[in-house]
């Protein structure tokens, strides 16, 4: 009787316990690194370290289990109040441990595990690694996240909904008579486009377009010549952390010749929708399909994009250009007066002024007989390397002006007080004061952008500069004879200093003669380099040099920093490094290596472009070229040596 009386409640209780146990049962998935992630029960305190995974968790109804985010995550709005635990590539392990998560999700953007992830695993926190590269990868990742968070059914439903929407767009665009050829710009400087290995490629294909770029990579460095040869029907520019404030293509040199620009088919899109492999990529497909094939979609079917949909640049309107605009398009940009004025005349005037100041100061120092006094300041150091007083004076002057230092060396060489070997070694030694001359500017560019990585970069390059100088002095000590303590190299006899009027008169006569000789070589050589630069020689050379960066040492993502340093300026490379560092794409070590690689590759090219004209003017053309090439070779070799040492011995 007792059994019968309690049989029904006991049965109900057992069913409830079974259901509760099922909801709390152990779960297991295999991540994209082949790791088996086992949890005793579904995760309830999850920290995703990549924004795409955060979006996936909210899409499957597991947003309430997210307890933190990275600094770059801002979607959906519900994540904004959550604590930020560093960046994707530099997560704050202490903060993560303090939040006590039962699951951390990371993106497989690196080939090996990071020390931060290894530390989390050592203390027993499961770390799942995923690397979705296409829609199937996104959907499969969402399903596995559903299993890990106890939202398996919701995840399957979300995936089915996204799949249906994607298939609906594909069915509609399959009716299109023409599939436009599209180039998708990831970055404008240097020009970088999406290859067939990118998420953007998947979106283009699904939206009824064809990716005009057939390179198998995800991120492809591209030349203007290759772009003009492709001549796409549509040009898409993504805007976001990887491509901040891109210049409208219609305002870029040579882009006016593109069919897409002439027809006004230039679109700007949100990077987070088109390059982040998450559920919103389906939104991107729907938005883009309506832009590319408006005749196939009813106007009322347009979804609210929230301001994130594709849009045209201001001024990019469809239609044929006017005859005047056509003539401007057909005329090379470097033949247009504004370009000549901005990129040739103004730099030449500025260069001439600085050369004139440097020559005048150098001649005044000689005419007043100050060389002996200045030489006393650095003489002991250079005398150890058996370099004389003239070299010491130039070394001191190089802390303030490279032109003045080179002028002093050339004057001494012409006067016979400096041999060619001493001249070469003196030029190499002067790279140390030249480093300090530019150090304040470099420091205040790097510190706010890359912080710790900037300090490490400066430490490596300073070590290379000091070691290089000591090595050159050691070579001089071995190869050069002992310099005389006094003699013909000391300009002027004691007690016979000329008056200021005599010194200025002598300086003016020598200054006019030498300035004319310098400008006779500098002006035509600078103009030649301007023409070579405008026809794309240096861009072609620098693009190919950037491809030599060893990606097994420097991550693929870091090639962007190298390319920015090469094709733009150092500040552009530092800005790119700062953006990638803040987004968590690069570690501190990878950032330093990228900056060093850009330094090694870009500085010789920049020296040829900017320093060679006045080197060939101050010295003879042959001697100036030889000295510049020697200095850049030794400098690059020393920085490369210390970059290797940093790679081998710096942890991370």
Verbal overview:
Helix 16 (389-397) packs parallel to helix 18. Helix 5 links the parallel strand 4 (103-107) and strand 5. The chain is built from 27 helices and 12 strands. The protein has helices at 2-5, 7-23, 51-59, 93-99, 115-122, 135-148, 152-173, 199-206, 224-230, 259-262, 271-274, 280-292, 323-330, 337-367, 371-384, 389-397, 402-415, 420-429, 431-450, 452-479, 500-534, 537-546, 559-567, 570-582, 588-610, 612-618, 621-649, and strands at 27-30, 36-39, 46-48, 103-107, 127-130, 181-187, 192-194, 210-211, 219-221, 234-239, 266-270, 311-312. It is elongated, with a radius of gyration of 32 Å. Strands 6, 7, 8, 9, 10, 11 and 12 form a 7-stranded mixed β-sheet that branches. It folds into 3 domains: 22-162, Nitrogenase molybdenum iron protein domain (Rossmann fold), CATH 3.40.50.1980; 180-331, Nitrogenase molybdenum iron protein domain (Rossmann fold, 3-Layer(aba) Sandwich); 341-535 and 611-649, no CATH class. It is 58% helix and 7% strand. The model is unreliable at 300-306, 314-334 and 487-495 (pLDDT under 50). With 652 residues, it is α/β, with parallel strands linked by helices. InterPro entries: ABC_Transporter_SBP, ABC_transptr_periplasmic_BD, Vit_B12_bind_prot. It comes from Desulfacinum infernum DSM 9756. The chain crosses the membrane at residues 49-68, 348-371, 391-411, 423-449, 455-476, 518-538, 588-605, 625-650. Residues 45-296 form the Fe/B12 periplasmic-binding domain.
